[in-house]
User: What shape does this take?
Amino acid sequence: MRLSVPYVLAALAGVVSETSGVVNLALEGLMLFSAFAAAICALNTHSALIGTLGAMSVGALIGLSYCLAATRRGTDQVLLGIAVNIAAIGITRFLLKRFYDSTSNSPYINSDIVLMIPIILVVGFVLVVLAHSVWGKRVIAAGDHPQALVDRNISVRRIQLMALTIAGGLCGLAGAFLTFSQHQFTDGITAGRGYIAVAAVVFSGWKAERAILTCLFFAAAESLGITLQGRSHFPPQLLQSLPYLLCLFALIGKQHRGRAPYALGRT
Amino acid sequence: MSKILQFVLTLLCVGIVLNVCAMIVGVSPSSVYRQLYATLHSSYGCSQIAFKATPIILIALGACVSFRTGLWNIGFEGQLVIASLATGIVGGYLPSNLPGSAGILILLLVACSAGAAWALIAGLLKTYFSAPEVMTTIMLNFIAMAISSWMMQHFATSESNHTIDLAPQFRFSTFAPWIKGSQLNTIFLMAIALTFVLHWFLFRTKTGFSFLAYGENPRAATLYGTSKTRTILLVFLVSGILCGIAACHYVLGSKGFHEDGFSGGVGFVGLAAALVAFNRPLLCIASGILFGALAYASLAINVLIPKEVTDVLTAATMIVILMLANGDQKRS
Amino acid sequence: MTDAISIKNLNKYFGEIQALKNINLTIKEGSLTALCGENGAGKSTLLSVIAGLQSASSGTLSVFDETVRNGRSPNGLGMVHQHFSLVPLLTVSENILLGDEPARYGFFSRHRAREIVYQLCQTAGTTIDPDAYIENLSLGEQQRVELLKALHRGKKILLLDEPTAVLAPHEIDRFLTLLATLKTRGFTLVLVSHKLKEIVSVCDRAVVLRDGEIVADLTPSSETIQMLATAMIGDHHLSSFTFQKDSPAASETLLEVRQLSVAPNVFSRCGLNNVSFEIKSGQILGIAGVDGNGQQDLFFTLTGAQPSSQGRVVFCQQEVTHASSEKRRKIGMRMIPADRQREALLNHFNLYENLYLGNEHLFSIKTEHRSQFASDMIKQWNIHPRDANFVVNAMSGGNQQKLLFARELHQNQKFFIVHDPTRGIDFATRQRLWQALSQLVSTGAAILLISSDLEELFALCTHLAVLYRGRLSPVFPINQINETTLGRLISGIGTEA
Assistant: This one.
């Protein structure tokens, strides 16, 4: 259960972004940036709450910038997302070295904040908003058939900016959760979860509830891997890669799962 | 916006980012540049740049071919790791009385096959299941690293955490006799040669043309005689082979063995290099050298700024070029 | 009754081409008028001028006695296009009310939305489930949603462009009843259609356009229907540009198609239904019919780009039903699709590279010979600009088409499938291309010419058949078909559909 949080939040962020029509592969990077931001804020203010808020703001800000860059004509959204992820790895490593003089971990963070409940609330809220609110419907329109919005003089770009900012905030929450649950920031703390979240989004046909379920599966795979490491003779590294393998199989079998928003990737 | 302008702007941005990083660390940018100049000015420095550039060039070539065909192959890191793993293991067990050239040939073959096999997984998944190659290749990257760390448990020698050292006759001699202390080896020359080969292939053969056509307009290409399956599989094959050769640069070259984490993200740097080269094979040499210089430079200024700055600079370059390029990458 | 739409002396030019000539038309409120004609007759252009999507070059247009200024969309006038502007992932009510959503604390009020939709349905005299998702609706139902959308915005005049093109046969009646109901409720309707049978059943008035002019204005009925059909096609078939058509003694059968069927799909709503025909060497078989009756399916299935669901295709005595395009090209098929930019050209590449596509053998010859070849082609086909390094995107349509012809025809292969080869192309180039096509068959080749342009078909073809709703009429030798039959086949009179 606990393990699934980053996956779920990231996947939800992915669904929100891509439903509005913007390809978002940067979930990994967003989480990583935010995780680091959470660490810095918490260490400097000794408050996990500020850390969480800091993480979410960083995430939202980067999400917004990503959207601005991604929705310019001709920008390749796929590669941009990957670039953001590379940037995240680089920048966090750099700052980690600079501030804490280590290449892999930050100092211990005394963060005993209970994030689970707010997270569940947030997830629920976002799900409801996306499915039932007026704004949520417009997001769906933006990604599926933006022309309908254009015909009514509604700005598609603004909807996308909002959506990506929210997605960034969600990843921010995920990043904060990662850092605080491990009580420190580690290099590469996200470990590809962002990419798996993207795969979950694709696999679940861009439907939020299904994406969350898929993430629970991946989390289960991860926890299975961890449990088996202690118990069985299976090589631990291969068990660690269980989520990735599962993801691979999911990508193979995604054919009948429903389709992408028609206008995904087209600005 | 002309390509030259884009390139210059990118360099400018790199400079700016470097300045920012310097300021964050609390070091004056000018001292950084002075240090850079000092190190780059020596022949040792230049050869080290070429040394670092070699795998980048190879991977960038693979990326060029993939992107021009419209395939988002991001899996170079994984292909590199698997190729290196295979080569390291096999190389450790080669009989020591095997003549050097035979051994080298065998290992080159092993490397290329391993890289190609790993790459083809993604290729086959795309062809027969329409699995999006962006995601499959990324997953395969992670899986490759997991396999590598698992295998290391069995194959690493007891004294070290890498595979058995290759017997000296199997390794490429360095250019040290000519350039003192240099680690540059023959693979660098191979990389240059391959650049021209790939340029010729892409722009002067009919198969290469079918790749380009497929990337430009897949519907037209398939209607007029290009086989989708063959195109996709060939592209991944080429990418895997190039990663295999890059693996040899490490295993047969500077290190003599395979160890976990040797690549240091070079798979992604190669990607960035391809973008900066506007997906043109010939320019890959230049952009490979640029990124090689960045990598080496960050080592050189390590006393001033943490060497991780190179990752930051790579990413910055990538982002800037993506924003400026406006989809130019596919055009010839 | 007031005049809903009043058009006086309307002319419309596209560059040098005059699409509409001196149109004078008054449409009364509460009437149902049909604009009929062939492809290119001007009916769609007229409709879009009325809708305000395009501006007239001269003349006046008034809607409800209010003169419409150029380029503005008139008030109270709504258009339903062939391609719907609906969001598939949202429901009917969400689509209709997009931008105007009834809300409670920011949340979509489904309850009130349903009410609004019910009201609209009452006004229109139709029903639809407000909570159904668009992607699950049939095209006929989607069309109704588009109509309701227009009604919601208070439009009193509705313009419909080929509305029954997307409908399945059983939906057509329902749709026509809907139109009749709307008429009785006081709405003014103008539709563009070539389906005379349907027009006869509901419209009060049929205005026939040909070559941009109004040539007939009648009350459609079973007596006048033949007159309408004839008026539509006019005397195009008596073109002065007929090419030499001495069919050499028909020898081998090059293409044999047996009961080819394709399910309705994204490209064409009607697919293909048991199409069978044969083409022998030296023949040019023309497939006539207005767009949207299965032409694209025919083209893509025969060229190997799309699979068929049933049937056999035998090409040069070889079974190619499931063969790839590559294989068909190897045997000797060459193709020119209708939508050049999407299906045949490498848009951002230059002329050289576009010549190579499909002509890989060019790579094995020396560079000098290749440039020689390119300049030969440019000269032979008079392609502008003369520089082979020019990017194809920047070339005019006519030159792009000449390039395609150059590329496909130079190897003197045996069989050509060509779809709308001269659509939208200037007169001189058309002649040139026609000449090239007719010269091909003198060497024993054969051509399948799919076209919506009757003049073209009569100029070139030795045989003719008509595609209507995916079904192919029997094949007639060109001199055995007369206007009456042709008119009937194209407009679907006499077919069950």
